[in-house]
Structure formats: C-alpha cells, structure tokens
From TrEMBL, chain A:
Subunit structure: The cytochrome bc1 complex is composed of a cytochrome b (QcrB), the Rieske iron-sulfur protein (QcrA) and a diheme cytochrome c (QcrC) subunit.
Binding-site positions, heme c 2: C154, C157, H158
Protein name, UniProt field: Cytochrome bc1 complex cytochrome c subunit
Gene3D superfamilies: Cytochrome c-like domain
Protein location: Cell membrane
Membrane topology, from the record: Multi-pass membrane protein
Taxonomy, superkingdom: Bacteria
TrEMBL record, chain B:
Chain residue ranges for the region called Disordered: 1-28, 562-593
Protein name: Cytochrome bc1 complex cytochrome b subunit
Enzyme class: translocase
Residues passing through the membrane, by range: 68-88, 131-152, 164-184, 230-254, 286-307, 350-375, 396-415, 435-451
PROSITE patterns per UniProt: CYTB_NTER
Compartmental location: Cell membrane
Record membrane topology: Multi-pass membrane protein
Amino acid sequence: MNALAARRRHPAAIALLILVGLLVTGAAYAALAPKPAQASTVSADQVQQGKKLFQANCSTCHGLQAEGSKDGPSLAGVGAASVDFQVGTGRMPMTRPDVQAPRKEKVVFSEEEIAAMGAYVASLAPGPAVPDQEFTDGSKGDPAKGGELFRVNCAMCHNASGAGGALTRGKYAPSLHNVSGKHIYEAMLTGPQSMPVFNDNNITPESKRDIVAFLHSVDKQQNVGGMALGRLGPVSEGLFIWVFGLGIMIGFAVWLGQKSA
Amino acid sequence: MSTAAHNASGAERLRANDPEHEAPVGGGLRKVGGVAGWVDDRTGAAKGVGYLMKKVFPDHWSFMLGEVAMYSMIICLVTGAFLTFWFVPSAGQVVYDGSYLPLKGVTMSEAYRSTLDISFDIRGGLIIRQIHHWAALLFIVAINVHMMRVFFTGAFRKPRELNWVLGAQLSMLALVEGFAGYSLPDDLLSGTGLRAAEGFMRSVPVVGSYLSYFVFNGPFPGESIIPRLYAVHVLLLPAILVGLFTAHIVLVAVQKHTQYPGPGRTNDNVVGFPVMPVYAAKAGGFFFIVFGVVALMSALVTINPIWAYGPYDPSPVTAGSQPDWYMGFADGALRLLPGFLEFTAFGFTFSFNVMIGAILLIPIMYGLITLYPFLEEWVTGDKREHHLLDRPRNNPTRTGIGMAGIASYCVLMFAAGNDIMAIKLHLSINDITNMLRLLFFVAPPVVFWVTKRICLSLQRRDRDLVLHGRETGRIVRTAEGRFYEQHEPLDPYTRWHLVQHEQHRPLELESGVDENGVAAPNARSQRLRAKLSRFYFNDRVEPVTPAELEAAHHDGHHVEAIEHQEPGGAPLVEVGSAPAGENPDTTEQRPGH
Ligand code: HEM
C-alpha cells in the first residue's frame, strides 16, 4: 500500500492510468457494443476458387476484377453477405437486364461455391460478412417485438403482413413469405437495390433476429379465418365479393325465378 | 301449382267485401287459430296483414337483388348486435395478453384488444366478425347492382322518383356506415383510413383544420374518435338506414312493383304471385339462402385479418393500405388527381388535389344519381305513370349514360388498386396511373357510344325478327325450282316482347317567343331541352307497327307457314294488344284504373 502511495506521483503513473482507462473502455465497448454477427473464417484456397467462379459467371456484367461495368455495379465493399444474399436467393447471376433482379427459386450455385465467391468479393474490400447463425435463427427471437419493429421500419414497403408492395416505375418490394432467416438478415444488412441498409446501429442483431422471428411466425400462422386471399387486404376481398358473392346470389335468384309457374 | 287464378281486380274486390267490424280476420288467417284472432281483437292488425298477404309480386331474378341487399342488412344488424357485447369502443391503451402470440406484450388500444379477443378468445367470435364484414360487403354490392337494375329498366320513372331518391340516400349512407365500422377495430389499416379522413377534412379551404379538430375533438388521433364513430355506427346510422329502408319498402308496396312487359302484363295491372303463400315462401327461402352463402363464405374465407395488420400507431404506414372496396372509387380518385392542384394563395394552402376526390366526389356523384330521374322526365316531357319496365336496349341513350357512369366508376375503383396491379402484373405504377388518368376521360364517351350502337343494333334485330321471323335453316325448293329459306314467324307471345314498347321522338323546339314577339323567359332552357332531347332520341329504331307487320306478311311465303302452324289463326293484326292472358299467376289491378 505504501509503495503504491509513494509512486502515485511517478511520471509514468499518468500514462499507465490512461492505458488502463483505454483498455477498460475498449473492453467494455467490445463487450457491450452491438457485435457484427460474423461467421466463418476464410482460406486463400477458397478465395482462389471464388475468383475463378466469379470470372466465369459474373464478370460479363461486374467486370473481371468486380470493378463494375455498364451492365452491373462494382462489388468492392459489398461484402460476402451481399453475395450470399444475391446468389443465395437466385437473384444473381441475372439472366436479363431488368429494373430489378427477381428472386428465383432455382439457385444456380452450391452453398460452397457461394461461400467461395463471397470470400473472393470480401477479399477485394472489407464489407459485411455472412451473419452468424446465432442471430438468424428466428426461434430465439421475440416475434411481438419484431412485429413492432417491422411495422415501423419495413411495412411501408413490404406491407404489414409482409405480402409485398409496389414501388415506383415497376420496382417492387417482394413478398417476404418463406424467406430464410439468413436471407432476411442479409437483406437488412446489405440493403439490396431500393431497400435501405439497416446497419447494426439502426437495428441491433438481436432486434434483427426478432424481425426474423416475426416474419417466420407469419409464415407459420395457420389462417385462422380461412383462406387468406393472398393476404392482399381489401382489394382481393372486394374482388371476391363481386365475383363469387354476387355470382352465387344471382345464380340462386335466377334459379328461384325459374321456379315460378 | 297452388296459385289461385284471381281475375283482374280480384284482390281489391275481396277486400271490398270484407265486413266492416265483426269477423275482422280474413279467411286465410282464421286457420292460424286463436292467437291471430286474439291479437287482431286488440290491434285490428288483420286488415293490414290481409292487405299485405294478398299483394301480388311479379317474379324475375333481377327483382331479387334488392332482397339480397335487405337480407344482408338484416344479417349485419343481427351480427352487429352480437359484436357489441364484447367490443370496447375505447382508445385507452392496454398491454395485450391474449392468446395470439405474435402480439403478446404489445401496447394497443382497448378497441383493438377487444377485436382480437372477439377473434381469438370468444367462442364463435371470429365467424360472427367475418359474417358481419362479408355481409357488409355484400350489402353494398347488392345495393349497387339493385340500383343498376332500376336504372337500366327505367323503374325510376313516375311515380317512383321519390323511391329512387330514397334509394340513392340509402346507398350513400351505407358507404358511410361501412366506413365507420371499418374504422372501429383500430388496426393499422383502419387507423390509416382515419388518418386519411383527417387529411380530407383538412383539405377543405379555410375551415379544414377547425373541422378536423371538431370531429376528432382535438388533434389526431385523440381519444374521442372511436367512441364517436361507435355511436354513429351502431346507433345513428343503423336507425336512419332502417327508417329509410322501411319507407322504401312501404313505397314499393303502395305503388306496387313494376313488371317486365309481357303478354297479359299491362301498365294497369301486376301479374305475379300473391305474398301468401308463394311469394312469402320464396322470399323466406331466399333469406336463408343468402344467410347460408354468407355464413359459408365467412367460414371459408378470411376477411380483414386485423391481427396481421397490427395495432394502429400514427408512425408506421403499410404498403397496400386500401379501404374496403366501396370506398375504392374515392381512394382511386385521390391517387389519380395530379399534385399540381395544390397551391398556395393569400397565405393559405389550397389542396384541391385532395379535396376534389375526398370531399366533393361523393356528394357530386350521389347528387347526379339522385337527380337523374328528374332530368330524364324533363327531357322527354313524359309525365305519365310507368309501371312497365323498359328493356335496356329500347332506350339506348339512357343505357349508354348508365354504362358510361359505370365505366368512370370502375376506372376510379381500379385506380385504388394501382399498386396491387403493379406488383401482380409486373408493370410500372407510374404507367398504370397515367393510363388510368387517360382512361378516366376516354373510357366514358367510348363506352357510351359502343353501348348505344349495340342497343340500336339489337333493336334492329328485333324488328327483323318480327318482320321476317326466325331463320329455320330449312331450305325449300318450290315447284318452279326456286330455293328459299323458310322463316318461321314468331309466336304472338314472343312477338309481344319485341313490339310492345313505344319510342320517344325528339321534342320540337317551341318558338321561343310569345305572341308579341317577346322572347319567352324560359327560351334558353327550352333550347337546351330540345338539344338534350335530340341527343337522347335522334338515333332511334321504331318498333314494328301492325301495318308494317301485315305488309311484311303479305309479300312472302310466310303466310302459309303461319296458317299451317296456327290453325286457330292468331290475330296477327293486333300486335298492339296483348294476347289474352291465360296466365296462371294472379293479376292485380293498379289503382285508378
Ligand atoms: C347495416 C349495415 C352495417 C354495415 C355495412 C356494417 C359494417 C361494419 C364493418 C365493415 C365493420 C368492421 C368489421 C371488422 O372487420 O372487424 C363493422 C364493425 C362493427 N360493427 Fe357494423 N355494420 C353494420 C351494422 C351494424 C350494427 C347495426 C351494429 C350494432 C348493433 C354493428 C356493430 C358493429 C361493431 C360493434 C363493430 C366492431 C367490432 C369488430 O370490429 O369486430 N354494425 N361494421
């Protein structure tokens, strides 16, 4: 105790204190700050394989070094998450120029190949990585909280039940039914096309997981009220009542009218 | 068939013979037994009931559209009463703790919570909610189609203009009633609808914000709007609707139903079934059919899944916010109106882009609908009573006007779904909107013209049929070796349908000056009237006259055929008069004849 007291005016003490302070805040920040939810490590082999795949399949539009061309944007800095999302949902490789690359059920590449291309694109410039499974698993989230977040941040484009909606000039926010947790997460992280980026400061990884939980709870919902009519709301209900409701009524009226004499 | 064949004035005469005081119960009712008699001794109701029982209603499927509306309204009333047991009309905030997990722990209004409870926690609640809402949609569909039937057949002509006016008000109030109900559950969609309504009120120049504060009792959304809407929805408007509807149906009974022209059916009688037993059985059966279909629909198809939309909160908006279909045309008008109609002047902002669609459209539309019978009466100068309906083709201009109106309504209604069309058809929403803007101006005239042409051609075909008969496809070779196709003349019953109507001619312009050469005060309006009359009736196809028909029959081979087919010799010349009614149905004389 005495020794410590004696040296507290030592010129090095101040520097030491600053060092400790920095360490503590650094550690605290590292512990408390929203963690980018990263997965997997990368090997040089993988990058090499990815480069080959990329040059064979993507370079016509994105350029040999992914530097971009008039047919496709530069991919520097979009990160592995973006590649995983775009290729994993079948959007890339794009088959023909259009206002928006549509989701395709048939994914051309295997998980491994996608990861390789992701690694290659990530090696060009740092960008968001493929999220850790911990945060893409909806069953760990809170759907009610996710619902609130979804209504505030996403419903204006994707509709309150995730049925999708129209944007200007032929663009659209797609339906979010049966999209995997990973792709939902990556969409928020990378903001494809007209969708804004929701980075980890906007919506923390835990909250993103809540949103995944909400969207998956919507998928799982049996339709308690009966057929859902595409969940398009009043438009499809109106169509239904005019076509079926009125049709059936007129059918019966004609039948009764004929029963006269 | 059990229908009695009363003669023309049977019903009236039966009633006239009723003894004045004792034995107030008519023959049919005595069988019901003591209860009816007991009631009648105290109320004297039998007379009225007997009168109603013997009323005659003509039969046609299109006359049942109004019934569909009536029954769906009744269904709404009954299911609505059920909903009031559990619905809590309050904007007070609570935390949800019911059985719908995705919303557990979310803060929401009591109105929304109670609607969730009705849907998930109250036995039978969801189906009743769905019946209530589907019946509401069907109600308004049926009113609309009923209105079209009345319009296209000219059933609104004297003496039924008053009933047309009542009907138009009913139809408009039904929209308001529906909108009020739609706004009650306080979900994201209905709240967005209310938000829009608040915007509409504010678009009224100068007083807009006062109006909105008055309705919402302060700034939007406030706590008052839901209880207020509730009072309007369950008390005020249903009372007015039921009152107007009663007046409507009483007028139908008093004026008697119109009928389609046909043999034995004249402007002076009604041919059909008496209320008891046939018509009542049919109508009662039809009620159960309507109820059954609505219940089935509600059991199978979701409507307004408010749980999927989430509770209302002024910050979020959802894509695909549409109102129920019947408000679609107003919403569509808003989507089509161009933004440049908003401008600032004298330090005020004038939002005509909103106001025209939201505040003016409905009164203008229903104003035009309400006034139409009076316009037509003025143009035709026809002040007679009409109890026989027009076939739509026989009044091409009216039919054209109606179709043009429907066309513009449809354009507006489709515009409300422009975003859904854009996604489903993979089109640009901007292109769709511009396209619909164009269509709003182009479609009505085109539809008018096409409809009118179709009507005129149909009339020509009718003339042709009457004059030359039906083509049989049988080719006959005469003794001299000539070939001709045998035409089979129409039987008098069919022919009657095609020749019974009269055709208006354009009104001649009165000179416009009085005997002293002074311009008559109404010269201008008379000129307008003559112009309109020409617009209506310049293009016309006259129905076949008896003389024409006779001439046609004397120059062909049809005569033999006719004589061959009808040995009895139908009175061919008398096309103008109905074939004698061997109608099994009851005929009732119209008053004053
Ligand atoms: C006659 C025509 C009527 C129409 C067109 C109509 C229409 C509607 C509509 C569209 C809703 C929204 C329902 C939903 O999806 O949740 C609604 C709700 C409601 N209506 Fe009506 N209604 C009518 C009559 C009545 C009457 C007479 C009552 C009460 C006696 C009533 C009581 C209610 C209540 C309590 C609600 C809110 C409950 C809920 O949303 O689940 N309605 N109405």
